[in-house]
Design a protein that fits this description.
Layout lengths: L2 H12 L5 H12 L6 H16 L7 H16 L5 H25 L14 E5 L6 E4 L5 E4 L4 E5 L7 E12 L8 E5 L2 E5 L3 E6 L5 E8 L2 E5 L11 E3 L3 E6 L5 E5 L3 H4 L6 E8 H12 L2 E4 L8 E7 L3 H8 L6 E5 L2 E5 L5
Parallel strand pairs: 5-6, 15-18
Antiparallel strand pairs: 1-4, 2-3, 3-5, 4-5, 5-8, 6-7, 7-10, 8-9, 9-12, 10-11, 12-13, 14-16, 17-18
Helix pairs in contact: 1-2, 1-3, 4-5
């Protein structure tokens, strides 16, 4: 295992700076046969934790004990047979990643509620072109869009209700004043009592968007500098919160057509006057295809439309009526060219 590379990826992971390729590399390293030898990874973990602990707002004694407990579990894997310890090792490392990541994101200010790490995590994922309906142990319902994942702990709804989202999901949350529902997505934490809302937080997009349909939510953003404070944003129904990962700017505006913003969960593809380059991204997520352009000028074409549960060739046929172009569909590949060109 490349100890230096692992340490770099660890630090970038904790700061939310990994792109999709680097994230895959990190978890490939963690899941490789070499990762069953604890020495290199333990060294990297020690270094990361030492760096984390240097911040002015150190973890509470309870948090420190939890993390030390997990680290002790990792150390005990040295005594197990190689084929037995692998899955236990992976679970322990996943827990430690969650513990340190959540501390890193929340320790800088007491205004941001923490999502308490637990020992086992369930993850539900969707491929591009796939959607899933999830019912959580508290009877809350979540619709997960394509290319997304949702993680929650084994003891969800016992002492806390917290999930981690990557991608897009629509939430219908069962009210429980004693256990607020928490959704973490990168540097943004959405706190809920009982409501319905949509979150779009794809890793390849600069913006994280929280759109409130009903009820009330508080949206927290982790501060840029350790020790500084952040003020949560309270949303009212039909408001949309947008956080830009690049410039860390927050905006709140009215969401004029909630039905269009959440139409994806009803298998309706909505194109709200956007260019062809953006349409291609949506088609890739929606249908699990790869879209390529034979002429970059085509990316500037703009489209508006609503498509209810149609196959991709029918969508492309209808798009051709507003802007002239040709397409070739071969398996999971779509080739877009100017009309009359192959």
């Amino acid at each position: 295992m490349n100890d230096q590379r692992l340490h770099i990826l660890f630090n970038r992971y904790l700061r939310g700076q990994l792109d999709a390729t680097e994230r895959s590399e990190l978890f490939r390293l963690l899941g490789s046969a070499d990762s069953t030898d604890p020495d290199a990874l333990r060294s990297a973990i020690d270094n990361v934790w030492a760096e984390t602990a240097r911040y002015e707002n150190n973890p509470s004694e309870a948090s420190l004990r939890r993390i030390q407990h997990v680290m002790a579990r990792i150390d005990r894997q040295r005594q197990r047979p190689r084929h037995v310890r692998h899955w236990v090792w992976a679970a322990a490392v996943a827990c430690l990643l969650t513990a340190i990541t959540l501390f890193w994101d929340t320790s800088a200010t007491t205004e941001v509620p923490s999502v308490t790490p637990r020992e086992l995590v369930h993850t539900v994922s969707t491929n591009h072109g796939q959607q899933k309906r999830i019912q959580l142990p508290d009877s809350s319902v979540i619709y997960l869009n394509g290319g997304s994942s949702l993680s929650y702990t084994e003891d969800f709804n016992r002492t806390a209700r917290s999930v981690i989202l990557s991608g897009e999901a629509f939430f219908e949350i069962r009210k429980n004043a004693a256990l607020p529902f928490m959704v973490r997505h990168d540097s943004v934490l959405t706190e809920v009592l009982g409501t319905s809302f949509n979150i779009s937080a794809f890793a390849d997009e600069p913006d994280i968007r929280v759109t409130l349909v009903s009820g009330k939510v508080l949206v927290h953003v982790s501060p840029a500098r350790p020790g500084s404070a952040s003020t949560p944003t309270q949303l009212s129904p039909r408001e949309q919160f947008t956080y830009n990962r690049t410039n860390r700017q927050v905006t709140v505006q009215k969401a004029h057509d909630i039905a269009l913003l959440t139409a994806w969960k009803d298998r309706t593809l909505v194109l709200p006057d956007i260019d062809f380059e953006r349409v291609a991204v949506l088609l890739e997520r929606w249908y699990g295809v790869t879209v390529s352009f034979g002429d970059t000028g085509l990316k500037r074409y703009r489209f508006t439309g609503t498509f209810q549960d149609l196959p991709i060739n029918r969508v492309l046929d209808l798009l051709q009526k507003s802007n002239a172009f040709s397409y070739k569909l071969s398996g999971k590949n779509v080739w877009i060219t100017r009309s009359g060109q192959e």
